[in-house]
Amino acid sequence: MSMGVPEIEDAKLLFIFGYNGADSHPIVARRIVKAKQKGAKLIVVDPRITESARIADMHLQLKGGSNMALVQAMANVIIAEGLADQKFIEDHTNGYEEYKEFVKKYTPEYAEPICHVPAEQIREAARAYAKAESSMILYGMGVCQFAQAVDVVKGLASLALLTGNFGGPNMGIGPVRGQNNVQGACDMGALPNCYSGYQSVTDDAVREKFEKAWGVKLSNKVGIPLTHVPHRVLEEKDEKKKIHAYYIFGEDPAQSDPDLNEIRETLEKLDFVVMQDIFMNKTGLQADVILPSTAWGEHDGIYSACDRGFARIRKAIEPKGDVKTDWEIISLISTAMGYPMHYNNTKEIWDEMRSLTPSFFGATYEKLEALGSIQWPCRDESMEDKGTPYLFTGGKFSHPDGRGKFFATEWRPPCEVESPEYPYSLSTVREVGHYSVRTMTGNCRALANLEDEPGWIQMSPEDCEKLNVKEGDLIKVYSKRGSLITRVLPTERVRPGATYMTYQWWIGACNELTTPYLDPVSNTPESKYCAINLEKIDDQAWAEQYVKDSYESIRKNMGIDTAKKEV
Amino acid sequence: MNYFVKGNPDLCIGCRTCMIGCVVAHEGTKIFQMKPGEYVFNPKLDVVKTATITIPVQCKHCENPACMNACPVKAIEVVDNTVIIAQDKCIGCKTCMIACPYGAIDMVKASDGGKQQDGSDRIIANKCDLCNGIEGGPACVRVCPTASLKLITEEAVETSASNKRTAAAISLSQVKE
């Protein structure tokens, strides 16, 4: 995020795009509610009536997969009505003339049939966004989990450039990252193209620095993104390029990745699969080796929040049983593979990382202890450098010339759209309580008492009536790739023709249905759109028994206590 | 006057922390040590979501409670400004559930593990008791992350009415004759 999470409360306008805070991050949602109480205007763009949409001043209930058209129609209005910040554009940006020319075509009337949002509503939203004293954009997976994702991120950033909403407090653009410490994983270089602090693996000077520090030769090639693994296992002909072994930790691709049939085949074809996690999960069922590791309350470390803020986490209880911390396991594996690695504590690891990462160098354990949290960049160890609450101060951007770059491109529809055979769209979403792939929360009894297998499919009351199904009925859902059984949840919060499922359930596993199409830049799959069909199940008693038996069988295979459990 | 918990839908984010807080307050942390299937999970409030509203619904603790008037065994009484169901007296007849105009009463397995004479589970009426006898007052109010729930007492009602009267007086004085 270019800003800090606390700044959300003081923005004059929040433009919330494809982000459902109440379900994915209740603690951030609290700030949104606070902002509203303090008088902020709320504009929400979402195909569903989310909690934020419900309390918003304006809700643009767009059709899924039309983001780019809407973003550029807003730019069109801002330019056409003379609401752009000409001084900011002249002083701090490049590419405005081409941008202006490109978005000319994207009039609200042009966008209306694509987005299913009235042209006048697009105009009103654009005016409000441009005119507010400070406007802040918050976006989530409703932007990122499309095959056209990075384009929309750049498009949203262009709206902020266009209106001068960068460089000061309570403005900017914020991807509110999906998972706990996903920001930290990226910050620490758990990406195929960079080391810690986003230092490029193809930069010779950077590579030499790491080679010297670690005393080994390092590759100068970008690695393989997670979502390319199935292809590199199943379709790669060149034995040298083919993947043979897969070491997975803190991830459950057999639950979270699209097209689970393909993932299971991939795990099956691999010669060797290692799974390192806190509890058994679907991936673990296909692993050759399982390395049990400690959970969040059982170890020390540092997390990065979505707003670049580092914060220490501390061990609360002693771990029980045959488990080790992730960093100890990695050290032991490395040593066994011939590269001796030893640390006494997480501070030693952090200090080594800092010494190799200029933009994080100033964030010492001592300073974190004193300040609670530090947002990078923080380059100096002295107490004067308290980090950077918001980026691009004074309109100075990260491009070499310090100027922000406008971006526009044609809208592309989702890769698989509705057809006579598959007439409904499906988007994967989150629900409050159960987190991510349920590894952490599925066995938590209080949360399982609120929601348990097989989960729900959110449908409009009109569609329920058409299919003659009611709340709680079990229903068959299928796509070109797979099928499953889940429960019907009629809700006025979704539009006819569109359906929504959360992706953590083992039985109602919606990733059996999703498509493996990726954004060409981020390699993130299009989890927010695929075509499905629904089929009423006449024999409900059979279906209930099927769900119960499946749950018991999965739990048994995973070695989870199968004591009486009502499904 | 009986007290009640009032929710503000403009603040509620539908997270259901209140429901978990309610169960833990009434059952104690023992539910975390028991085997699944051996404890009951009976939230005394339910988060309702419509197109425009999200808010937990629970007992209003009416001044003239339909449930109390309907109960044939006098298992419902007013104690400490609270309408309370005496679980040991309840015969599970469901009359109060039908009588309640707010849908605030449901029928659940008794949490004391009590059985019927034939050995089957005892089913009784369940509703909000404002955490009567529990230190700190209603758990839902205490755990709500957006402070969307408030315990309304006589004093709170009087203060609110008094503030409104003051506001009315000020607005009247601004009306020129």
Automatic annotation (TrEMBL), chain B:
This is 4Fe-4S dicluster domain-containing protein. Residues 49-80, 81-110, 121-154 form the 4Fe-4S ferredoxin-type domain. SUPFAM superfamilies: 4Fe-4S ferredoxins (SSF54862). InterPro entries: 4Fe4S_Fe-S-bd, 4Fe4S_Fe_S_CS, RnfB_subfamily. Coiled coil: none annotated. It comes from Acetobacterium fimetarium. It holds the Pfam family Fer4_4. CDD domains: HycB_like (cd10554). Signal peptide: none annotated. Keywords: 4Fe-4S, Iron, Iron-sulfur, Metal-binding, Repeat.
